[in-house]
């Protein structure tokens, strides 16, 4: 298998993982019972518009609804309104979307049904500052979180304690209507209360947990935000709140299911596959170094897995910003990986975000092999300097190895696929 064939193979693995999370297939299996009253569809996340379009196709009763997704991630719907807003940093369009979502679920009765279509990315798409805070405060919080290197669970715990819509508050506003949440998980461990900061799913995290994460990762947040989190006003509703009593939560897609589909596709093409984990977290460059060590061991010593083999992993790494370069967690992971396999033959890798966007650029991730660092050097790019400057996008762009599939309509976290030939 040559390099071009390897790229095609790895792309087919990515496509299989994404297909396993296709909303039309997954939502059909989790349709709630029809209500006596109205059916209202709400949602937020990078896959919410596609989920809404899929729900329209499989639901044969009357519906009304509103979902918010990232700019460029919209889908054609006839009965559910799609609003686009900014991600990963919130904007005024997201603020208006949050206001309208809360308004959409108010005044319902116990005979009404609210279907919540939730996917990753909803945290940034649903800014709704607590009383006394502003959109600028919530933007400052988001920027501090993204630069902190904190895991997604810690970030979302903080977010839900500065919001009037996250942390189950959107579902609480819908009471006494029954709320059924259909969740596409991008969270290691698949806790639905952490996906999009759980607008319809409460959990047990407290403001003390939020304050502990702020301290642990050295975050500098506005004084107004800190004052709020330290006050009882920040407390989110608890899972035993009677307003959540009749609600349901269903996980419709996850990294684990998609990794199994990716492994099955590899085996269909004659390559054995192993899954390291669907919940790997940590600093992207450090996780990249560990994956490189495993790939080198297989390539040079045929252990712990026999060649040829596809090594798969999922989860969500983090990037602690040290500079203002272009990149994302998958491209940063892969640049560290490329440095770790420099000069080793027979290794090809793809790291990509299953939603189609890694960071703030238009790529989902990138490809790498044992010649990547040398090719970068020939193009005048110092791979280690680029890694130090959080500039992985620039490095892979210089050698034409960015992976740009476009928005996929789902989001089940990162996919790392390493082929050792």
UniProtKB/TrEMBL annotation:
One Pfam family from the record: MOFRL
Keyword Transferase tagged: yes
GO terms for MF: kinase activity
Signal peptide (UniProt feature, chain positions): none
Keyword Kinase appears in the UniProt entry: yes
InterPro entries in the record: GK-like_C_sf (IPR037035), GK_N_sf (IPR038614), MOFRL (IPR007835), MOFRL_assoc_dom (IPR025286), MOFRL_protein (IPR039760)
Domain MOFRL-associated: 10-230
Designated name of the protein: Glycerate kinase
């Amino acid at each position: 298998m040559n390099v071009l064939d390897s790229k095609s193979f790895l792309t087919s693995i990515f496509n299989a993982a994404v297909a396993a999370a296709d909303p039309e297939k997954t939502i059909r299996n989790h349709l709630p019972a029809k209500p006596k009253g109205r059916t209202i569809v709400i949602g937020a996340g990078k896959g919410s518009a596609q989920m809404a379009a899929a729900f329209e196709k499989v639901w044969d009763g009357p519906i009304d609804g509103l979902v918010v997704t990232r700019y460029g991630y919209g889908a054609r719907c006839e009965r559910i309104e799609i609003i686009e807003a900014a991600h990963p940093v919130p904007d005024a369009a997201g603020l208006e979307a949050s206001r309208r979502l809360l308004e959409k679920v108010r005044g319902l009765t116990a005979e009404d049904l609210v279907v919540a279509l939730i996917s990753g990315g909803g945290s940034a798409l649903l800014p709704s500052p607590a009383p006394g805070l502003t959109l600028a405060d919530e933007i400052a919080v988001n920027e501090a979180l993204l630069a902190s290197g904190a895991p997604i669970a810690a970030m979302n715990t903080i977010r839900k304690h500065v919001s009037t819509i996250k942390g189950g508050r959107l579902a609480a506003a819908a009471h006494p209507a029954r709320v059924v949440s259909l969740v596409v998980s991008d969270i290691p461990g698949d806790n639905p209360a952490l996906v999009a900061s759980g607008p319809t799913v409460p959990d047990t995290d407290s403001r003390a947990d939020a304050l502990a994460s702020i301290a642990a990762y050295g975050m500098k947040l506005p004084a107004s935000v800190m004052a709020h989190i330290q006050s009882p006003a920040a407390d989110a509703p608890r899972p035993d709140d009677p307003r959540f009593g009749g609600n349901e939560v269903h996980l419709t897609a996850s990294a684990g299911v998609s990794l199994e589909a990716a492994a099955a596709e590899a085996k269909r093409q004659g390559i054995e596959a192993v899954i390291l984990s669907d919940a790997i977290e940590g600093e992207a460059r450090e996780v990249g170094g560990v994956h490189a060590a495993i790939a080198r061991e297989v390539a040079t010593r045929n252990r712990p897995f026999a060649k040829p083999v596809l090594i798969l992993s999922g989860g969500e790494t983090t990037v602690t910003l040290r500079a203002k370069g272009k990149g994302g967690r998958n491209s940063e992971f892969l640049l560290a990986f490329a440095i770790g396999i420099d000069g080793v033959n027979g290794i090809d890798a793809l790291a990509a975000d299953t939603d189609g966007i890694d960071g703030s650029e238009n790529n989902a991730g990138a490809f790498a092999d044992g010649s990547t660092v040398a090719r970068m050097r020939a193009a005048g790019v110092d791979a280690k300097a680029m890694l130090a400057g959080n500039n992985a996008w620039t490095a892979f762009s210089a050698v034409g190895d960015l992976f740009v599939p476009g928005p996929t309509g789902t989001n089940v976290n990162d996919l790392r696929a390493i082929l050792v030939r």
